[in-house]
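Consider today's protein:

***
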Amino acid sequence: MSKSQPYQPLFLRVSHALNAFLVLGAFITGFLVYDSYDRRFGGLGLTEEKRSLINIHGTFGFFLLFVYLVFLVYSLIAQRKKLIQGNTLQTLTQTNKPAWWYTLLRISNTLALIAVSLAVISGKFQLEDWLPNGELNHLWYFAHLIAWVIILFSIMIHVLMAIKVGGIPLIISMFNPNFQPQDHPKLWLGNVRNWFYQVLNK
C-alpha cells in the first residue's frame, strides 16, 4: 500500500473536521452528564449534578444534527466508495491482504455514520428532565448510551485502519490546507447540484 500523501477533497476535510469537533464535544459532555447523574455502569465522579452540562451537551447535539446531515448526504453520494460495498463479504475472506484492510476501514466508516445517526435521533427523543428527575430507564436514553459506545469503538477502529491503510500521510492529508482549483468553495453549490443530478439520473 502506497504511503505517499493522498489528496482529499476540501469539502471532505472541512465537513469531516467539523463533525469530528462536534462529535468529540458531544462525547465528552455526554460522558460528564452520565458521570453526574447515572454511573450505573461505572464512572469517574468528576462532576456533581449540574443542569448546565445537559444544556452544553444539547447544544453540541443541536449543531451536530445540521452539520452531520450535510456530511451524511455527502458521504452517501460523493464518498460512497469509502463505505461498505457489495463485495464486502467476499473481500473479508482475503485475510491480511490490502483488500481486507480497506474493507475494515469502509466498515468502520459505515459503522460510525450509523452510530452517529442513532445518537442524534435518540438524543432528540429524550427530555431534559429525565436525568435530573432520576428517570434513568427510558428506552431512548439506553439507545443514546449504546450509540455513544459504538461511536467510541468505531472511531478507534477508523483511526487504526486509516493508519494501517494509508499511514501517517493519510492522516496528515486530512489537515492539509491546500486545495485544487476544482475544489474551490465557490464551486461547492454547483458540485452539490451535480451530485444530486447524478443520483436522480442513475
